[in-house]
Amino acid sequence: xxxKEIYQTMEYGPAPESNKESVAFLDSHKRKFSxxxxxxxxKPSSGEYFESFSPATTQKLAQIAEANEKDVDDxxxxxxxxxxxxxxxxxxxxxxxxxxxxxxxxxxxxxxxVLESMDNGKPIRETRDIDIPLVARHFYHHAGWAQLMDTxxxxxxxIGVIGxxxxxxxxxxxxxxxxxxxxxxxxxxxxxxxxxxSLTALLFADICKQVGLPDGVVNIITGHGGTGAAxxxxxxxxKIAFTxxxxxxxxxxxxxxxxxxxxxxxxxxxxxxxxxxxxxxDSVVEGIVDAIWFNQGQVCCAGSRLLVQExxxxxLYSKIRARMETLRVGDxxxxxxxxxxxxxxxxxxxxxxxxQKGKDDGNICWQPSWTCxxxxxxxxxxxxxxxxxxxxxxxxxxxxxxxxxxxxxSHSEAVKLANNTxxxxxxSIWTENINLALDIAPQIKAGTVWINCSNVFDRRDLVxxxxxxxxxxxAKRACTNM
Length: 482
Ligand code: ADP
Description:
With 482 residues, the protein is α/β, with parallel strands linked by helices. The protein folds into 2 domains: 20-267, Aldehyde Dehydrogenase, Chain A, domain 1; 272-451, Aldehyde Dehydrogenase, Chain A, domain 2 (3-Layer(aba) Sandwich), CATH 3.40.309.10. 44% of the residues lie in helices and 16% in strands. The chain contains 16 helices and 18 strands. It has helices spanning 3-9, 20-28, 69-107, 109-120, 124-152, 171-184, 199-210, 225-233, 246-256, 281-293, 310-326, 345-360, 392-395, 411-419, 434-440, 461-465; strands at residues 32-33, 35-37, 40-42, 49-53, 60-65, 161-165, 188-192, 218-220, 239-243, 262-266, 272-275, 305-309, 364-366, 382-385, 402-408, 426-430, 448-451, 477-480. The strands form 4 sheets. An 8-stranded mixed β-sheet has the order 13-14-15-12-11-16-17-18, with helices on both faces. Strand 11 (272-275), helix 10 (281-293) and strand 12 (305-309) form a beta-alpha-beta unit. Helix 3 crosses helix 5 (124-152), helix 4 (109-120) crosses helix 5 and helix 5 (124-152) packs parallel to helix 6 (171-184). The chain is globular, with a radius of gyration of 23 Å.
């Protein structure tokens, strides 16, 4: 389409981001990645590799090593050996490494963003403007904590070797959330990325080499669930930090019980998004876009259950439908795309099956009039209305771009509906009345309650969970944006 035609129709033209640098990175490893153990690229002892695909194009990106028990043991041994000198360096010297990592991430941010979009399928706008800048901020932030540790946090002590198992929805951000605070507090780590999205963690290994991080402080082992299980069961791992499915979280809880290992688990959610009749409905609509269509809805604290006061329900639904019609689904490297690809066919199938069950239960399903690109693993934004609270789509985490809506009449009914789930990760409340918001917030059984915003995070939590200190913390934080 010519620029003149674009001006006439005001249609979006294609705006592809160059993948040159990321392709060069993949080629520099001959598209076959080893494990990063003790500061060196190490072939997997099994000799096995698996393939990583781009979900937006279905093209093969690279072969990734499958680590077995022997490789996990080697990585843990390296981390154990590196522990004492890393602790003895002191917070101030560790901070210098963390600052150096942060600067390198900023320097290579475009490459990280493009590679993440290629590997995960999420829009380049999100990786470029949200994920990677936040990754750099996390390393800067925790460099600051490391610097302050000797003077301000004298009671804090390292835990030891930490096994970190992360999912595919925010690969680099999860890596930063886990690695930055752990290193700051003097721990060494063995990290296993998710099998669908290992590439940015492997690029991060290159950064660790570039800044001269002492060998063994960070080890990256790739593989499937069996690799994760070997890490969980290793006797020299002092803590497991896991983010992923509730099902695997339970397995890890059982495997670590009675071993003395510490664990932190961040699992699933079915977070309520509660809209009272006095809310600013246009802001609510944009809040919903952020809550459920951000990252294709593959967010553990996604606002996936919309609870709306009956008096404004139909008005809000029609505003949401109008907005959905304008959302653009497509190639993750296109800068004007709002929703990218679903990470893998298995995840796409789970979404399709749950949507079908939602229809079978008699809930009303609405999707925009346009169709998704045929190549790649795409799913359109989807809205269910008149949903029964007991329906499977109101209870199960879908982990896709599917919003389920139901209405309430009284404030107490809103609270009951919000709490009618086995999850308790996050929630958000929308009203122009601060007194109402502050009355409802403590009644919601969720770790975080956002007011007039959603998916806003607090970095301060991470230092506490990655160090040996008993901190009396309020379980609930109210984060307001009024
Ligand atoms: P998701 O639904 O987000 O893919 P999973 O819990 O399946 O969640 O995966 C999250 C991470 O846990 C991935 O890195 C995966 O390889 C790993 N994993 C899967 N099964 C196990 C297991 N039994 N023990 C340890 N880690 C596992």
